[in-house]
Amino acid sequence: MRKKKENWLGKILLLFFVVMIVLGFTVPGFIDDGQQQFVEPRICQTDTDCYLMCGEEGVEPVTVLCSQNLCQQNSCSEGNYYPYSNEGITFTLIVEENGFSVDLVGNEKDIFVKLSGSSVSLFSSGLSLGQVLEKVGLKIDSDLGSVFVNGEQNYAYSEFVPEDGDKVRIVYSEIEA
Predict the structure, then answer these.
(1) I need a labelling partner for 170 at 20 to 30 A (CA). Which of 13, 69, 103, 131 fits?
(2) Which of 23, 50, 83 is the last residue of a domain?
(3) Domain hosting residue 109, numbered range
(4) Which of the 8 DSSP states describes residue 71?
C-alpha cells in the first residue's frame, strides 16, 4: 500500500515539474512580445545588394551603404548613418607608384562612390577616405605609401572625410635597401 502512495506522489511531482518547465519557456515569450526583434546583419559585395523596401506599404526603396561586406542598415526601423544624397561632393584622388599615375577602377554596382578618371564623387555625407579606398580595393601600406591631403601629409587618412574640391594624393615608393 505504501508503495502505491509513493508511486502516486512521484507521478504528481513529475507532472508538476513538467508544467513548471513548460511555463518557464512560454511565459517569457508572452512578456517580451513588445520588444524590438533582432535583425541579422546582411552580407554584401556592393551597394546594390543592400536595398531595403520601406514606407507604410513597403514600396519606398531605401539605398543602403555596403561597407566591409556588411550592409550598414538591415531593417527599416534601424537608423541610416549614410543616407543617399542626389547632390554629391567631388574631390580629386591621385594614386602614384614610383612616379607614374595609376588609374583606379570602381565597381558599377557601387552607388555611393563613383569614379571618373581622378575625380571621385561621393553621394553621402560622412563617408571617410578609408571607406572610399575600400570601394576601389586599395589598401595602403604605411611603410611604402604616403597620403597627402591638399598638399599636407595626413597620417589619419582612413578617418579623413573629404569635402568638395579636396585634392588627395597617394604616393607609393619602393624602399631602397
Answers:
(1) 69
(2) 83
(3) 89-172
(4) E
